[in-house]
Amino acid sequence: VSQSRYREGVLKDVIVFEPAAIGGALATDYGCVIANITKSVILAAFRAVPRWSAAEFKHLSKYNDTQCPLLGDVVKQLRELIAPDLRSVAFHSSRVVRFEHTAANTWKLTTAHNQLFEVQKLALAIGAAPKILDLPKPVIPLTIALTPHLLANYVGSEDKVVVFGTAHSGTLALQNLKNAGVNSITGIYKGEKPFYFSRDGFSEGIKQESAAIADDLMDKKWANLIQLSDFSAAHRVVTEATAVVYAMGFERPNLFYYENAESKPFFTSGPSAPSINAWGFGIGYPSQYTG
User: Fold this and answer.
1) 102-106, 146-150, 238-242, 257-261: which range is least confident on average?
2) Quick one: pLDDT band at residue 6, thresholds 50, 70, 90?
3) Rounded to an integer, what distance in angstroms lies between the CA atom of residue 43 and that of residue 60?
4) In terms of DSSP H, where are the helices of 87-207?
5) What ranges in the chain are assigned the alpha helix state H?
6) 143-152 long-range contacts, Cβ below 8 Å, gap at least 24?
7) Tens of pLDDT along 156-180?
8) pLDDT in tens, 104-125
9) What is the pTM of this model?
10) How far is CA 273 from CA 122, 124, 264, in A?
C-alpha cells in the first residue's frame, strides 16, 4: 500500500478492515439485550489495557459493579476507548473475501471491492453467526426474538413457537414470546437440566434477568420444557410448531484461506498458528487445518 495515500502521523503499517459497525453484531443486532456478564468483569477486561486502566468509563457509570449492562452501552464504551486508535490507522469499510498465504509467509487480501493488499501479519476478529438446524419450519431470527417490539410483528397468540436452547439468549427469547402474547411456547434443552445458574457456581451460568426468567418458568410453567433426548416429545412439538427460534450458541463463518498456488483450504479452527503469521480473537482463532 502506498504510504503517500495516508495523511502524515497515521500508523501506516496497520490496516483495519471493518465492513459493519465498530463492535460488530453487539452494536447492530443485540444492543438492546442485557449482557450475561457483570460490569465488574467487563471493566476488568477494559482495564487490562494499560492506557485504559484509569479511564472514566462514563457509559457504564449508571450500573453498579454486580449489574449486567446493556450490550449497547458496552459497545458505546468500547468505541470511545478505541477512537484514538482508529484515527491512527488506515481504515477501510470493506469486507475481505479472500486470504492467500504466500511463499514469503505474507498474506494477500482481496476485498469485496476488488482491492488488493499484502500484509506481513493477519489478525482475525471475524465474529460468528447463530447456529441453526435444517428443519422444515419458518425461522424467527435470534436478533428478532431478542428485540420485543420487532418480535411483535412476527408472532401472534395462535402461533406455536419452539425455542432451541435455554441459556441466556434462550431464556430472554422465551420471555419475549410470552410478552408478545404467544400461548404455545416450548423450550428444548440439550443438557441434563434446562438451566445452569451462575449462583450455583457455573461460571458461564445465567444470572440476573435470565435467572429470574428461569425461576419463573420453573415455578409457573408458562412454557413447556423438553429435553432433546426425549425424541418423541421433541419431534411432536416441532412438527406442530408454526415457527422456531435457534438460541443454541454461535458458530464461525465458513472463512477459508488459500495456500500458495495449490489452493488447499485452511479453515479457522483450533489453536493459534503463529507459524503462518495469523492470529485471532475468540471464535476467529486460526490454525493450519486442512478440511
Assistant:
1) 257-261
2) very low
3) 9
4) 142-145, 148-151, 168-179
5) 25-28, 39-47, 71-86, 142-145, 148-151, 168-179, 208-220, 231-240
6) 143/25, 143/29, 143/30, 145/172, 145/173, 145/176, 145/177, 145/245, 145/247, 146/30, 146/32, 146/33, 146/172, 146/173, 146/176, 147/32, 147/176, 148/176, 148/179, 148/180, 151/176, 151/177, 151/180, 152/180
7) 999 999 999 999 999 999 999 999 9
8) 888 889 898 899 999 998 888 8
9) 0.81
10) 11, 12, 16
- For residue 187, the SS3 value is strand
> Helical H runs in 180-280?
208-220, 231-240
Task: Report the number of secondary-structure helices (H) and strands (E) in the chain.
Answer: 8, 16
Q: Which among 109, 259, 20, 275 has a CA at the least distance from the CA of 267? A: 259
In whole angstroms, give the CA distance from residue 193 to residue 132: 21
Under the phi-then-psi rule, with left for phi > 0, alpha for psi from -120 to 50, and beta for the rest, what region is 277? left
> Residue 284 above 80 pLDDT?
no
Place of cell 470493506: 94
Output Rg (C-alpha) for the chain, integer angstroms: 22
